[in-house]
Design a protein that fits this description.
single chain; alpha/beta; 5-stranded parallel sheet; globular
Length: 137
């Protein structure tokens, strides 16, 4: 991998957050992961703490502000709209997928049930984005 990523992980499930962080650590990656439990908390992190991540990974089904509502707010912001947002969800609802792409996501990954498959998808995702020329750099 060529670059260290600043990742904003928006996920309300503590086990999913732990699983993601475990995969990053097990792969020996030095990416910085900032966690938000929902879209509202993520917006606070982005606006109040002036953190501009390289990528945003988010779930769709969250309390307060869900993934689609968060994406609409993100993509309406002149500064934040360029941050690549990737959905990481168990939902394979075609309408959700199409709506997310219409809003402007960079990818949609369905969380696999098997841990090995999850690890493989996260590794490929992070390899791609760390090798990419990111807009925030």
């Amino acid at each position: 991998m060529s670059g260290v990523l600043n990742i904003l992980l928006i996920e309300d499930d503590t086990i999913e957050v732990m699983k993601f962080n475990r995969v990053v650590k097990s792969l020996g990656l030095n990416h910085k992961v900032v966690e938000a439990g929902n879209g509202e908390e993520a917006l606070h992190i982005l606006k109040e703490q002036n953190i501009i991540p390289d990528i945003i990974l988010l779930d769709l089904n969250m309390p307060k502000i869900n993934g689609i509502e968060f994406l609409n707010i993100l993509k309406a912001d002149e500064v934040l709209k360029y941050i690549p947002a990737i959905i990481l969800s168990t939902s394979n609802n075609h309408r959700d997928v199409m709506e997310c792409y219409r809003i402007g996501i960079a990818g949609y990954i369905i969380k696999p049930l098997k841990y090995e498959d999850y690890t493989d998808r996260i590794q490929k995702l992070l390899e791609y984005w760390s090798a990419n020329q990111l807009t925030s750099q």
